[in-house]
Each structure stands twice: as structure tokens, then as C-alpha cells.
């Protein structure tokens, strides 16, 4: 496959393993990330499957209590730090950012490759911790259990997350510098695609929040290995200090996951509604507003932890405030459909699924911002359902939507659209069947992290576990037909969706240096016109 100017595409310019492992091409590095992300997705999915299988019956008869603790801890650590946080930025973001701003590559190609190696090294530490006996603290590493009482491999897990944090910082720094310095002529700030704005806001959050996580992980190791009393109350330490530091990172981490997904879905909706994004500047300000206010709401995780009542009230009000820019985005996505020529492609179905799941997750977040409700459902299955709607349902649905949208650009191949639409609908149905019953379970009082429970709750757990089977099928099905498309799929043109954006001005797949000549931007983004009978997947 060749580029528009006859040069080899990035896929065929050197096919040896060495050429891939030492590449500095952002597109190849994105594919390397996709391989490792797929591995961690499967690993996290298997551990989640064990959890759901255990919960089919009220008695803890599949795993011991310790084994169950290790299963959900592995699931949380792998899915949060090795799948969800890097999912869209490291894969789609890495591939598309230079293309979308008319650049030949990211600002620091070697640093980009190093970020992948750091991610792989951190992942190997997690796998070794699993093989050596596992971790039982939960993904939050709450002290003093993680520093004093746990006999599992906390040190290895903390070290893995610490190293993964440096991979995140390297990617974020690369994105920020690239967006500032390498935009094509005429591509002013308010001509940037909203996916680029989302990556920019996310990168700023990564740069500001991740060092705090690294610091608190170091303090865990200092107390656990060296015996310095930082968090242990028996020796004068303060366990609440850990929670403040941990959630100062980990609540912004929710927006680190969701902001790139918002950017992806905006690209899907505007393309397949054939309309310019409604309120473009408001969408930009909403992205930046979420990134800013997201740093001020960590205390709503601690309403039952003993912080002062005044602090709880302030964090409650701020938590309601962060819903405002999120609501602006939902309104603007909805308004973009008005008088549009809507095409219900698989990409659009994934985008609509995201809006539904994100809205459900956001509304239940308002429940948790209310102190009395939060106290009632704290540490119950309600919390599990809420953050899965945001962090897994919405984010992964958006990723699959973006993968289908840009698959022809990435591979030069088209996939079977009928199967893709079926997978999108199945994913939405399977996710709701899995997690909506957990809202009911949590309201009724089912604690999280328990592997045995009263028999009255069984019917809801059976529904949830049955839904997880459907959801797993929906996640695996696209892997099958996308792999098939690599061999049997029809060849894609440069712009099969008749979309705007600089990435559609080059060949599919792109040549090594993206563009034969640097493109020039002379108009606003999303200048859509009435649809043509363009080529698309069949």
C-alpha cells in the first residue's frame, strides 16, 4: 500500500520486528499501544469475569475471601491504570493528533517510544505481582491496610503504577508541545478539532495530577518498606492524608478518561449528522471547565471518612458545579442533531450509546454529590455501577466508536457495517443489563467487595452476571470482524465518510510522514455540506 505521492504507507515502510520495536513513527507507536491495551483489556476482563461468576450464588463457593480480594484488585489496577487512562490518548490520540493538526509527527518521537516501553515495563511488574501471589488491597491501596496489614505484593503493584505514571506524563508533555508548536498554517486555536482540544485538556490534567499519585505511591513504599510512620495511626500517622492525596489525583483521573471520549464522540456526531457542531466555543470552554473544576471535587469521596462537615458541604457544592459543563456538552451534542441529515452508521450508534451511558453516569453522580444520599449508598454496589457507567461504559463505547470511524484511515480497509451496527447495539444492551441492576443492589444495601451476600439479592446478581456475558460478546465481536477486514475487507478511499478534518486529506493508510505537502487551513472546523453518496463500509 502506498501513499498519495507513491511513497510507502507507514504499515509497509519496514516490516521487520526491529523496525517496529525501534520505530519513531507515531502511527506505529499507536498500534503498539493498541496491542498492549488489548492484552490488559483481556486480563482485566478475565478477572472481572471471575468476580461476576463468584457472585452468581450467595455463598462464597468459587473463591476464598483472599482470592476474591485479589481478583477485584487485579481487575481495578489493570483496568484503571493500564487500560482506561491510556486507552484513547495513547492509541487513537497518538495516531491522529499529528494528522489532525497537519504535522509530520509528534514533537518528541523518541519520548513517544519511551512512553510505550515504560508502559510495557510497568505492565510486566503487574503480571509478575499476579504470578507471585497477587495483591489484595483494592485498586485504591487504602492505608493503613496497604502499608501495615496486607501480606500481598503491594510494593510491586505500587511500583508498576508509579512507572506507568511516567509513561502518562511523557505522552501528555508530548501532546501539549505538539499542539502548541506544530499546527499547520492557518490552524488557529479556534479552528482545532474538538478531539484535539480534548487531548489538550486531558494532557494538562495528566501533567498536573499524575505527580501527586507518584508521590503518594512513594510514601506507601516508604512506610511499608522503611517503616516511616506516614499513614499508620498507631504510630502517629494520618490515614486521611493518604485519601486526600490519592483522590486529588484519582478524581481528575475520571476526567482524564472521559474527556478524550467526549472529543471522539463529538467527531462522530458532527460527521454523521452532517452538521457543524452546535456551540463550538462553548464546547471548548466546557472541556477546559471540566478539566479545571475536576481538581476541586476530590473530597466527595470522603463524606464518611471523618473530614469536617464544612469541607463536605464545600465539596458537595463543587461536585454539583462540575455537572454544568458536562450538561453543556450533552445539550450541544443533542442540538447538533437538529435539522441534521442523520446517518445511523455504526460510528453514530456508538456515539449515541455513549451519550446515553454518560448521561446515566452523570445523573447518578449528582445523587452522590448530595451528602445524605452518598452516606446511604457509600461503599455499596451503587458506587460500582456509577463509576462503571462513566469509566467503562462511556469511555469504552466511545473508543469503539472512534476505532470504527478511523479504522479505514488506520488500516486502509473497510469492515462489514451490518456486524458493526449489531455490535454497537449489543454493547449498549449488555452494559445496561450488567450494571443497572447494581444501582438497585446498592440502594438495597449490597456492599461492594463482598463475595457472599444475603440470598434476597441473588436475582439482581444473576441478571448482572448474565449481562456481563452479553457485554463480553459485544466487546469481542468487533475484534473478530475488524481482524477479518484486514484480510478480506474492501479497500478504503482517503475519505470514506465524506468527513472534514486534515486527517482525511491524506491516503488511507497514511504515508510515513503523513502529508506530501504541509496542508493549509483556511476555514472553520466542521464545515459540513449536504451528504454525497460517498463510499462506506458494506
TrEMBL record:
- Tell me the membrane topology, using the record's own terms: Multi-pass membrane protein
What InterPro entries does UniProt report for this protein, alphabetically?
Cyt_c_oxase-like_su1_dom, Cyt_c_oxase-like_su1_sf, Cyt_C_Oxase_1, Cyt_c_Oxase_su1_BS
Quote the Gene3D superfamilies the UniProt record gives: Cytochrome c oxidase-like, subunit I domain (1.20.210.10)
Keyword Metal-binding part of the UniProt annotation: yes
Q: Which Pfam families does this one have?
A: COX1 (PF00115)
Q: Where in the cell is it found?
A: Membrane
Q: Which PANTHER family match?
A: CYTOCHROME C OXIDASE SUBUNIT 1
Q: PROSITE patterns, from UniProt? A: COX1, COX1_CUB
User: Which family does the UniProt entry place this protein in?
Assistant: Belongs to the heme-copper respiratory oxidase family.
| Keywords, ordered alphabetically | Electron transport, Heme, Iron, Membrane, Metal-binding, Respiratory chain, Transmembrane, Transmembrane helix, Transport
- Name of the protein this chain belongs to: Cbb3-type cytochrome c oxidase subunit I
Q: Where are the transmembrane segments?
A: 30-51, 71-101, 113-135, 155-182, 194-222, 246-270, 282-303, 309-328, 349-371, 383-407, 419-440, 460-484
Ranges of residues in domain Cytochrome oxidase subunit I profile: 20-522
